[in-house]
Amino acid sequence: MTHQYDDIVIGVGGMGSATTYRLAKRGRDVLGLERYDVPHAMGSSHGISRIIRLAYYEDPSYVPLVRRAYELWEELQERQGERLLHQTGSIDAAPEDDPLFRGSLRSCEEYDIDHEVLTSREVTDRFPGYRLPDDHMALYQPDGGYLLSERAIVAHTMQAQAEGARIQARERVTDWEPEGDGVRVTTDRGEYTADNLVVASGAWAYKHIDALDGLAVPQRQVLAWLQPQSPEKFRPERFPVWNLQVEEGRFYGLPIARVPGFKFGRYTHRGEDVDPDAMNREPEPEDERLLREFAERYFPEGTGPTMRLATCMFTNSPDDHFIIDRHPEHPQVVFGTGFSGHGYKFASVIGEVLADLASEGRTDHPIDLFGLDRFDV
Q: Which of 32, 62, 90, 179 is least crowded, fewest Cβ atoms below 10 Å from its Cβ?
């Protein structure tokens, strides 16, 4: 006989592992299905670390969610007995009238978040790894930092298993269909039924939810780790995580952590929308050149030998905000996608949100900004 689950979660990455844990913690019978390993390097959550920050230039309405995310990350690391959240401070820097700086300042003022406004010279005096343009202003927020992203997936997975969840890796979902008020999920190994389905499959979400086709668009990204000539200036205690708007584009970066070299990348990189099953996963010379030229200009003491290059994917929505909702025709199916570029930090609270929607049909978290209906589908 087929085992009937309360919930099936497709994808056990950043969001899916957190959702599986939150559902299992509520005493629900949960199956998590992952087509690759747990964790893996095929999606959007690998590469050692991800930025977390309270100053939120994208929209101030994210601040309550990220505050809750901090609480849940601290809860998870205490339960796992492993430090996952490292606070270095964060810097958002741009010309004074740029949305990156203005939005960060607005979010701090609106939510009474501790912050300082610094000139580019003051940034370099305090954090000598930086060489920002003279016309740039920076917002420094002391609570920012980074998460150990792959270790956090492991932690969420292990805690989900401790709560009774069943997680199966190396099993690809090939189809799902409504069955009465529930769902039937078909994989390359078998079939499963459940009352609810949660799609948290990242760049593959549009392949599981037709309504997301053209709205959750995967894009190829490349990250670089360069060994600094002065590594002491790029360690966590002296090098806050950062977002930087310059004439070459918008870039982000993190200090040396767990592997040699400081880490950075360019949002949208080379603008390559991709099929996640056919993406070029090998970094190319042009990828390295683009990133190295940026570092030579703005972080000149961080431009020693290349230690590592890695590809990943962002999954972008048309307005760069998340997409979290119920299926327009099948309310027993919920999904979350479009997180890439700024989403990983929210994984702990998105797990709570998706668990709310699956188990309760609603959430008290402020997610009105993320509804599918804003795209008139």
A: 179
